[in-house]
Amino acid sequence: MAEALLQAEIDIDASPEKVWALVSDFRQMPRWSPQCRLMKAFGPLRPGTRTVNVNRRNFLFWPTTSRVTEVIPERKLAFRVNENNTVWTYELEPTATGTRLVESRHAENGVKPVSNLLVNAVMGGVPSFERELIDGMTASLGRIKAAAEG
Predict the structure, then answer these.
(1) What average pLDDT does the structure give for the chain?
(2) Number of neighbouring beta carbons within 10 Å of residue 117
(3) Can you give the pTM of this predicted structure?
């Protein structure tokens, strides 16, 4: 099965340290993400830390759980969503004027079939849902940029 990579990026006029402080604080995730309503970490930010999350799309709410897979301060943060096996990543790269921030969702071995079944049944199909996720990433990055530069 082909891997599904969804990605967006933005240049931010702020240091990687400042941008990292924003993306690595899971309590702030609902402030950035149009879909996330809660992201609660159980323990300090490190590989293996578990989270409970609540997402929303219109009138539909659903919980997920995830586990942090990678933490490289001021460079990279990644977590795997257990329900669909996707890995969400924030990568920070210093630039001449600040930081390039890349957000991606990677389904290394494809999204779990049950997840695709639910997306097709309840959320209008995988292609439109993936477009919506990319739009959400773009919105999230714009909000992080505004907060970092504000």
Answers:
(1) 90
(2) 11
(3) 0.88
Instruction: Tell me the chain's radius of gyration from C-alpha atoms.
Output: 15
| Alpha carbons within 13 A on the beta-carbon side of 138 | 7
Distance CA 144, CA 77 (A): 15
Return the amino acid letter for 136: G
Domains of the chain, earliest start first:
4-149 (3.30.530.20)
Tokens of 95: 């630039």
**In the numeric block, which tokens belong to residue 148?**
């970092």
Burial grade of 146 (CB within 10 A; 0-12, 13-18, 19 or more):
exposed
Below-70 pLDDT ranges, the chain: 1-3, 109-127
62's CB contacts (< 8 A; 6+ apart) are: 54, 55
Q: Which residue has the tokens 């919105």?
A: 139
Neighbours of 27 (CB within 10 A): 10
